[in-house]
Amino acid sequence: MKTVTTLNGLRQAVDELRSDGETLALVPTMGALHEGHLTLVREASKHADHVAASIFVNPRQFGENEDLDAYPRQLARDEELLAAEGVALVWAPTPEAMYPDGYATNISVAGVSDGLCGDDRPGHFDGVSTVVCKLFNQVRPNMAFFGEKDWQQLAVIRRMSRDLDLTMPSVDAIHGVPTVREADGLAMSSRNAYLSQEQRAAAANIPVAMAEAREAIRKGSEVAPTLAALQAHLLQAGFEKIDYAELRDADSIGLLDANNGNARLFVAARIGATRLIDNIAV
């Protein structure tokens, strides 16, 4: 496995991997890898001759007073995990390499970035869209793999790729991989490491409350009181604030007041200093 930190080094490494016409898959990450990330790598390895992973804590997707400085950075450990999975290339640029002095371009995707985390984290999806577009152009993969835990992000990236006619990868080559969960159902996240033992126990109520709400909606219960009950469940469990608990269309991310057959339930909740998100199909 090779780790590169400069764009020239990346281009040389990618050319070497693709010299015989072999395919390359990209798994973009912000590091602090866990089993969810490694699942993406394993899925990518089923579809491509080589797998590249990027490790970059993108400052442009963090808002004011968010956890940019506290976000865990553990490159050496991440490299060990990726090497054990057979990853061929790690792209680990510095912020200065990704955004050189004078950088002035921003990508904004309307519609699917509205609501949910788009409302609660202004500018977040502009940062995501910009860095992912740059990663696609830098690594030039044949395909890319993202976790479905960040469903709205996945929708934004697919729309961006379609609208900008990106060919590496095309929208059809952007793979969503089902959320990997802990034994108690909590979605795996690098931010779970922030939780105290008591908070971690309380966090397990998210998948429980979501499953209860999904079952109620499937049985015909009205959406508004069902979501109100979900929020009450989480607040009683110890969460201080519910950013959102909403039913939305899986493709358009449009708000729903009834199950349309393509609905997903989205939740974001705060406990202590940690914000956790999750979503499930209804």
Descriptive notes:
With 282 residues, the protein is of the alpha/beta class. The chain folds into two domains: 176 residues, Rossmann fold, CATH 3.40.50; 88 residues, Pantoate-beta-alanine ligase, C-terminal domain (Pantoate--beta-alanine Ligase, Chain: A,domain 2, 2-Layer Sandwich), CATH 3.30.1300.10. 38% of the residues lie in helices and 19% in strands. The radius of gyration is 19 Å and the shape is globular. The termini are far apart. The mean pLDDT is 96.
- Name the overall outline: globular
Helix content: 25-40%
- Helix/strand-derived class? alpha/beta
Main sheet strand line-up: 1-4-3-2-5-6
Q: Overall pLDDT, averaged?
A: 96
The CATH homology group name of the largest domain: HUPs
For the CA atoms, what is the radius of gyration? 19 Å
- Name of the CATH first level of the largest domain: Alpha Beta
Biggest sheet, in brief? Answer: 6 strands, parallel
Q: How far do the termini sit from each other?
A: 41 Å
CATH topology of the largest domain: Rossmann fold
Q: Kindly state the number of beta strands.
A: 9
